[in-house]
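Progress report, Aim 2. The chain analyzed during this reporting quarter is listed below.
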Amino acid sequence: MKHLKTFLLTYFIAIGLCTVANAGLKIYYIRHAQAGHNVKKAWEKKDVPKSEWPAYVGNAEMFTPTGERQVAAATEKLKAYPFDFIASSPMWRARNTILPHLKENNRTAEVWPELREGRGAGSILSKDLPVLQEEILNRGEPIILQGEEKPFFELRDDAKNNYSHYPKNSSRMIRAAYLKYATLSAIKMIEKRFGGTDQSILLAGHQISGSSLLKMLLQDEPKVKSGLRNTGLWMVEQQEDGSYRLKMYNSEVYSEQ
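Predicted structure tokens for the chain:
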């Protein structure tokens, strides 16, 4: 019953969004479900010996019980949206959040290392960020797909590796510069492939990288009260002048008022 109510609510939100305007590119972004690294601090505050912690605590490649329920609910939620294209961060928690959706619909998603989690979203709009002098894309560690994922994810020929990690002990501004470079690269691909169309695309990623992408698309700080929740959706729609307008945040219709 709970899943049915969630599906119906999401369905009517989707219909409402589609009827507001149907001409611009729509970019949907879903944050991954809760994984073990998300709850480590909470467990550290508990009076429980580490030897008695559940196996998922601190493990970014395992969902918590809450995360598993979020994946199931997200799979229902995504049924309301017809996506023309799907891409995911290379990280396990992002891929496996959308994997059930891909399986149910016999779809594949491209792996975009540009959507990988990073650091520096708070400074990404700063005009004082340094400009990177070296190429970082496809220069990091190889992207490895696990067994059951392989039929549902594709690596781009130009992105079989992650982008380079910033040097150890880098400043906040350097970290933000790396994140900005990757984020702008993702936006460039989006606009080259889909800009000016009426298509809908889904990107699966993380809190910080999702915040960075949203800020760069809007070229402003979004007026939101909280961060993107696990499996929360935001959506922007491209306007006639090429700019983007925020239409959904945390799976709810967005209004600045």
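The chain has a mean pLDDT of 92. Residues 2-33+65-253 form a domain with the Rossmann fold fold (CATH 3.40.50.1240). These observations will guide the mutagenesis work planned for the next reporting period.
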